Amino acid sequence: MCDERHKVNVTCRVNGREYTLCVFPLMRLLDVLREELRLTGTKEGCGEGECGACSVLIDGELVNSCLVPALQVNGAEITTIEGIADGDRLHTVQEAFIEAGGAQCGICTPGMILAAVSLLGRMPEPSEEDMRAGLAGNLCRCTGYMKIFEAVARVCQKTGTKVNA
Question: Residue 123: how many CB atoms within 10 A of its CB?
Fold first, then answer.
């Protein structure tokens, strides 16, 4: 048991690997990922749950990691942007973002990609309206969103599904 002045043990799986961490219970998951595990792909944008830059998957659900206390992920399965590729092979959504030019400054990109992965996992044939709704929690100040929507549409084309009008 750890108690470096009121820290607790939190055990979770991150990108398929199990960790037991000694952290303050209310430390943000975002900080645990970036500072304790050195997974810096997850970005901090607003720190208030408004922009989606810090989005990760917890037990398959898209969440803003800046709003999640470390204690809440005890026993959870967490997937970050680092966990969606297969070794050196990028995830189909990552490839599509590159091909479509859906990333510019890069702050929103990891969260936007995980939002797209989540959307396509729930809805393999999204309409444009579905894409807009599925990515609505993620803000981008650089691309104007059209290249991001194009990236999601490319994934559908690659996998043989279509984007419904």
Answer: 15
Q: Which residue has the higher pLDDT, 3 or 16?
A: 16
Domains of the chain: 8-83 (3.10.20.30), 92-158 (1.10.150.120)
Q: Residue length, the chain?
A: 165
Side-chain-side CA neighbours of 74 within 13 Å: the count stands at 12
Average pLDDT over residues 5-26: 95
Instruction: Give the tens place of pLDDT for each residue, 34-58.
Output: 999 999 999 999 999 999 999 999 9
Q: Is the pTM of this model over 0.85?
A: yes
Tell me how far apart the 2 most distant CA atoms of the chain are, in Å.
Answer: 56
Encoded tokens for 120: 């396509």
Angle value at C-alpha 130, between 129 and 131, nearest 5 degrees: 90
In the sheet with 77-79, reading across from the earlier edge strand, the strands are: 17-23, 8-14, 77-79, 55-58, 61-64
> How many whole angstroms from its chain centre is CA 151?
16
| Exposure class string for 28-66: b at 16+ Cβ within 10 A, else e | bbbbbbbebbebebbbebeeebebbbbbbbbeeebbbbb
